[in-house]
Amino acid sequence: MSFSQLKRRSPLIPLGGIVASAHDVLPPQPTHQVSVVVASLKRDNTSWIREQLPRSWKPSIYVVDDPKADLTVPLNKGREAMVYLTYIIANYDALPPVSLFIHASRFAWHNDNPDYDSLASLLSLNIPYILERGYANLRCVWVLGCPAELRPLADVNPVWEDYRKSHPPNKHEVTTKEVYKQAFGELLPGETVPEVVGVSCCAQFAVSKEGIRRRRKEDYVRWRNWLIETPLVDEVSGRVLEYMWHIMFGQKAVFCPSAEECYCGLYGMCNLRQCSERGCEGQYTLPKVATLPQGWPLIGWEGEERNYSGPAL
Asked: What 3-state class would DSSP assign to 100?
């Protein structure tokens, strides 16, 4: 369905037999099987995933720092990338129609919601939209990552042009943009290194079964081996994958759809005010710091009480 068709259906958007206003939460259709793949640490509270998401959705909560957990990873490296690859490898032959790849925290600075609430966003997801397109970034706003986060051919630092021949790099010596070109060649050999890479951060997305199977299972195994073996430190190797997932799933190197179209199609919010291709007023504000204040979402940045009206806490 085109964006213009979605707009014409506003302000009432029927999905799965349920009619809701364009600004209401639109429950996903229960007939669609969805797996929720979560990268977590032992200290994370993931109860909201099990208790507040639709019962038809299956949580796959990986605990990266607990080798005795029901779901874990071969090595705690590469941040969420190790979890995502491990899930795909284990489930490749029996994937559900849609897999959601998310972080463990319900409230986090990068969640594309006025309250930075992942739950509110997930409850609004339009699953047929994901099935139709095969891939969707869960962030519609362009800041950070769009329209051009990396310029691999121009960003190469000669010192790190071949990072494997140098002493093991650390986070103070190398950045993602400096090693992306070489990493791209190792991960996607034979494919042309793009001049520009753009996708909204921060490695949370939805992919259809067909989107994942654009690549062979052997590719995902090879990519996980790369993640295990690379001398790049955790945050750099993870960020390399962060800006490569969309390409792996068959999208163009610059994946920056109009924010207005994204909010309408992916979340059913088709009448947001003052929208541009980069964002919509009041939907997302980039915070000055990455840590939300204690007591959020009931307590604000200055210690004031907030008029929170989102899903139950």
From this structure: strand
